[in-house]
Amino acid sequence: MKSAPSLFLVTLLLGGAALADDDDDDVTYRKDIRPLWEQKCMACHGEGSPYLAEFDENKDKYEKLARGPRMDTYANLVTFVGWPDSGALMRRLDDGSNTKDGEPGNMYQHLGADERERQKNLALFKAWVGEKGWVLKRFDELSRKELGRMRVAE
């Protein structure tokens, strides 16, 4: 069983590679993901939402309130990419092309009003995480190499 990484290690693994390539064309949280997140995700995952641990303890309560775990900052959002809820962002937003059953994640439908918009916004999230980093696995299933492919530039 793998032990949980420190926040420093997760930041290094997820942010370090992305920070090395500081091109204007790179997808970043501030420039690209945050505005999309505000438009599509804030209503259910904003500052009025619980942090992950509280959400996990009271899932039924928060689901009835149409609240998901809080993702209103870069730090909060990347916990659903690398750790502690590794791959959750990818599992929830995936269009089904990366699953055995071909079923999209439960949040894919919220990426847009139609399939074209959903695919466009999914491509943006994939570019942010990194095509090779778009892994649907949980932390204990991930290799160090797979974690290192997750880019998530701030």
Radius of gyration: 15 Å
- Order of SSEs, N→C? HHHHHHHHH
Derived structural class: mainly alpha
Q: What portion of residues is helical? A: 40-55%
**What is the averaged pLDDT score?**
88
Distance between the termini: 30 Å
Shape: globular
What is the count of helical runs? 9
- Largest sheet, described in full? none
| Beta content | under 5%
Q: What is the number of E strands?
A: 0
Extract low-pLDDT stretches: 16-22
How would you describe the overall organization of this protein?
With 154 residues, the protein is mainly α. It has nine helices and no strands. It has helices at residues 7-20, 29-40, 42-45, 52-57, 59-64, 74-78, 88-93, 115-129, 144-148. Helix 2 (29-40) packs antiparallel against helix 8. It is globular.
